[in-house]
């Protein structure tokens, strides 16, 4: 029986992506640009959180946004309407952004004029986790209506994110969301990552999140 040569296409793709992501991160470091990757399921409020953060930090940093979506440019249009540079990446069906996609987005921006760059990944809790985008910080977003059991169902994103934001606290009274249980579940998977509860609709809780993010950016800058 002849020997069989196994070619692991997935691992080759992931390896190439990691190498490119590392180069992108190095290039961003040289230009003093801090990249934040936002991940969540659809409807959690990624764009709303980004807009709130832009508003809150506009006097501290020069900011821009790269929006990822399967189709449409509605999120980029919303950001641009707030007066910030925005680039829309249409994946045409891909369920996550890759380093190569992010590279194209970076090429469309004047990075020398940017301090803080936000990346809105495709909306789901599985695919984006395994693909390094070159970001310095990965933030996972959850909303109250989604339930407190997401760390049990999608553990990898809760194991790997650097911080968590629980959005839509303004409707907490209408949903059966056990905050203590959620924090315990996240704590078992990722005890060092902070959790921020806030409402993008009312603005409640946005300031502590922005203060923490600002400190992280400041610590990274020369």
Mean pLDDT: 92
CATH topology: Rossmann fold
Query: Roughly what percent helix?
Result: 25-40%
Number of domains: 1
Query: Any idea what the shape is?
Result: globular
Distance between the termini: 60 Å
Could you characterize the architecture of this molecule?
The chain is 39% helix and 17% strand. It contains 8 helices and 7 strands, in the order αβαβαβαββααβαβα. Strands 3-2-4-1-5-6-7 form a 7-stranded parallel sheet, sandwiched between helices. Strand 2 (63-69), helix 3 and strand 3 (86-90) form a beta-alpha-beta unit. The radius of gyration is 18 Å and the shape is globular.
SSE topology:
Blueprint: H1 9-30, E1 34-39, H2 46-57, E2 63-69, H3 74-81, E3 86-90, H4 99-107, E4 116-120, E5 137-143, H5 150-153, H6 155-160, E6 163-167, H7 179-189, E7 195-197, H8 206-220
Parallel strand pairs: 1-4, 1-5, 2-3, 2-4, 5-6, 6-7
Helix pairs in contact: 2-8
Keywords:
Rossmann fold; globular; 7-stranded parallel beta sheet; alpha/beta; 39% helix; 222 residues; 8 helices
Brief overview, please?
The protein is α/β, with parallel strands linked by helices. The protein is built from eight helices and seven strands, in the order αβαβαβαββααβαβα.
